[in-house]
Amino acid sequence: MTHEPNASAALLTLSGIGKTYVEPVLRNVSLAVRGGEVLALTGENGAGKSTLSKIICGLEPATDGAMLLDGQPYRPASRTEAETLGIRMVMQELNLIPTLSVAENLYLNQLPHRFGWIDRGRLERDARAQMARVGLTDIDPWKPVGELGIGHQQMIEIARNLIGECRLLILDEPTAMLTHREVELLFEQVARLKANGVAIVYISHRLEELKRVADRIAVLRDGDLVCDDAIDGYSSTDLVRLMVGRAADAEIDLSGRTLGAPLLRVRGLGRTGAVQPTSFDLRAGEILGIAGLIGSGRTELLRLIFGADRADAGHVFIGEGRDAAAIDSPKAAVKAGIAMVTEDRKGQGLLLRQSIAVNTSLARLGAVSTAGWIDHGAEHALAGDYIRKLGVRSRDGQQPVGELSGGNQQKVVIARWLHRDCPVMLFDEPTRGIDIGAKFDIYTVLADLARQGKGLIIVSSDLRELMLICDRIAVMSAGRIANTFERGAWSQDALLEAAFSGYLTQDIASSDHSTAAA
Question: pLDDT, tens digit, for every residue of 182-200?
């Protein structure tokens, strides 16, 4: 159901907004956003959500239509102009400078001065106060942002956008990399902003989350607005049908697998300050999930296995007996048959200016080469094959990856390693920022890989995702595996309890130490 926007009651009104690149990506979108209201904006990857948000925030001009802010014509020429008028956006791809400190990133355009010098004392006080608003009380404000995990970086970006006057805040997949505790802190901020009359556009694929936080729901499908209504009248199943034109499967077929001998053996693997000595096996055909809070060591463990970070204890072996290969570098890992899909697709996973075809073939160039020369026909055919298999929304295999939506970029990263055909595959947040329909497509791919006898390790912040697709879930807490659960023996509460267990132990030990010292 759609309705015409009530301009008189709206903070921001969109009328007939359209955007065309090579082809139309938005068509005749009309919406009203009111102060003190949370508007959920959802749809599949490539449906036009991010493009619409960028138009509102001055990052892209609309091809058609008009906008009104407080009843006056609104057409920002830049993000800075929009922010001056109180329109802010926390993008899925973060806008932070990794070499600068947390404090400097927060106040980059308004650093406090005294006698011509930066007032570091005031900057630190202001930064700590702003960080406390989003629950980041345990982070040094002088720590370089690049040394933080993606989840903490996301919270820093949210904190930055809450500085000064904020009349309309757009949150693009804000919880994709947050833990349960951080999500609750974010929801507290949303409630506070809403009570203060701030309008919020909340973009997410997590439908239960939208039903909890939003008043209204707007659904885009293939650039068209197919729903603008109160969210209470819609179930998650209704919203999925609106988004994808069909119901998403509730179950994943994990049948047809035989768990074989160990493919990967991790023995006492650790790195001081990140991962305590850890041992486990990964069997052929098995899907092993790794859960835990941000900062628990999940990503760090995967990087140690892949050889991207140097371990100071333990070993990683692939294979058995005399044929087992020890892994001590990414080159050795890939050569031995280990693939890693990183959580940072833009920074570490893709050549954004290169085509889908180039990015897909990169991990195994020999398959598309003849006498040392790239066979572009073979490369293009390969890309087309994976575009069809994974449902990548694109013009063709020659489209630059940087022009794709975040979810489709993630599919290209996965396609590269599928092409490499490694027996062991490490996935760090493989469905972050991907819509529900595409998630189930990727779950099906993961199940097929397991049926082929590959061993998969999947790090995810989404416990329901791990519970849906995994045979075992290892829960990390404070740098160690606190517990490992077999399918059928876990619950969400048990997984969360294990995730917090290491930090509770630390708190008790710290308290005992303080008491003894006193």
Answer: 788 788 888 888 888 999 9
**Cα–Cα distance measured from residue 213 to residue 80, given in angstroms and rounded to the nearest whole number:** 28
> In whole angstroms, what is the distance from residue 472 CA to residue 463 CA?
12
Looking at the fold, whether 170 and 273 belong to one and the same domain comes out as: no
- Both tokens assigned to 328: 């001590």
Beta carbons within 10 angstroms of residue 401's beta carbon: 25
Residue 98 domain boundaries: 94-164
Distance, CA of 481 to CA of 266 (rounded, Å): 13
- 307 or 517: which leads in pLDDT: 307
Residue 15: pLDDT band (50, 70, 90) is: very high
| Residue 188 within any structural domain of the chain | yes
DSSP structural state of residue 367: G
pLDDT digits (tens, 9 = 90+) for 371-427: 778 878 888 888 888 888 877 888 888 888 888 877 788 888 888 888 888 899 999
Total domains present in the chain? 4
Please tell me the distance from the alpha carbon of residue 375 to that of residue 417, in angstroms, as a whole number: 19
SS3 state of residue 426: strand
Residue whose tokens read 């954004």? 352
Specify the DSSP element, H or E, that contains 458. strand 455-459
Closest CA to 344 of 246, 257, 410: 410
Check whether residue 214 and residue 201 sit in a common domain.
Answer: yes
* One domain for residues 1 and 76: yes
Our CA angle for 481, 484, 486, nearest 5°, is 165
Q: Which helix (H) or strand (E) holds 269?
A: strand 262-271
Q: Partners of 114 in the beta sheet?
A: 117
Beta bridge mates, 329: none
pLDDT score, position 462? 81
- Measured distance CA(59)–CA(79) in Å, rounded: 6
Q: Tell me, yes or no, whether 361 and 330 share the same domain.
A: no
